[in-house]
Specification:
The protein is α/β, with parallel strands linked by helices and 304 residues long. Helix content is 52%, strand content 13%.
Length: 304
């Protein structure tokens, strides 16, 4: 576990994730208080990567639940292995038959079969989904509930019980409590507002796009082969693009991919031709690309 806020920053930086003081403070508190973290911010600022890096830093398993519209408890919590139950029923057909043959009346047969039905609704036939996996884990884990804003409000309400008590009730098995309370990271791209009830249960963290110097350090840390000149030009271009009214601003991961691509192209600095021919690597909509093309001469002049 973390010794201090500085320890969080150092260990995250050791894995290539720059953690400012605010982010490190929330992570430190969450690890000490066993509270979930709700991370909000625009797409591509490193919210999901925060959860992945947290697991990597602590050397523990990452369990990820990707949320989407229509996600329900069965897909997030558990399902019964019906095919396996049916197979075992076929294998034990003779044994079941003998039980039925020993019964005199229909009611007695039903009663005797019902006494044995718990065998088919035991953990042997239970298929844990991400939430239950995190609760049943024998070792501490990081539970990443990604893009929770994509799920329906009903599913968000279901999460409240899980995040409050870290326990679930399965009618056939009873209440299952977490052996180790997982470190929970929930991410949201703000496609819909999270409820106050969810926010109350979490430490809240909003991540903005990094400042230029911070993103420059990130680039140099992740891609050490990048020249200083090219790294600074990349950051300047991305910074300017994010100021434009685009449908989708370049994310950090797209910036990193663009930088790696420029190395593959043996570019040591950006000129208008190189920038024009690689715009599609950082912009994902043709309308955005056409809009930026109108600004290319000015951008190249400004970045030098």
């Amino acid at each position: 576990m973390f010794k201090s806020i500085s320890d969080v920053q150092e260990r995250f930086e050791g894995k290539g994730y720059l953690c400012n003081r605010q982010v490190a403070t929330v992570i430190y508190l969450a690890s000490r208080m066993k509270k979930p973290i709700l991370v909000e911010g625009p797409p591509g600022v490193g919210k999901t990567e925060l959860g992945k890096t947290l697991a990597e830093v602590l050397g523990i398993e990452l369990i990820r639940l990707q949320c989407y519209e229509g996600l329900d408890e069965a897909k997030a919590l558990y399902e019964w292995k019906y095919a396996k139950q049916l197979l075992y029923t076929q294998i034990l057909k003779d044994k079941i038959g003998s039980i039925l043959n020993e019964s005199v009346t229909l009611q007695e047969a039903v009663d005797r079969i019902s006494e044995e039905e718990d065998v088919f609704f035991s953990e042997r036939f239970l298929e844990p989904r991400p939430l239950l996996k995190a609760i049943l884990a024998d070792e501490p884990t990081v539970l990443l509930i990604d893009e929770v804003d994509r799920s329906d409000p009903e599913f968000e309400a279901f999460l409240l019980e899980v995040l409050s008590d870290f326990q679930v009730s399965i009618p056939e098995l009873g209440t299952l409590r977490a052996k180790h309370i997982p470190l929970v990271i929930l991410t949201s791209n703000n496609s819909r507002e999270m409820t106050d009830a969810l926010k109350r249960r979490c430490l809240h963290l909003y991540i903005h796009f990094p400042e230029k110097e911070e993103e420059l350090r990130m680039l140099q840390m992740r891609i050490p082969d990048l020249s200083d000149t090219l790294a600074r030009q990349i950051v300047e271009v991305v910074y300017r693009l994010r100021k434009l009214d685009l449908k989708k601003s370049p994310s950090i991961s797209e910036t990193l991919d663009w930088a790696k691509s420029l190395i593959v192209l043996n570019a040591d600095k950006l000129d208008q031709t190189t920038l024009d021919s690689t715009l599609n690597l950082i912009l994902k909509y043709e309308r955005d690309i056409e809009k930026v093309r109108n600004h290319l001469p000015q951008i190249i002049k400004e970045i030098g």
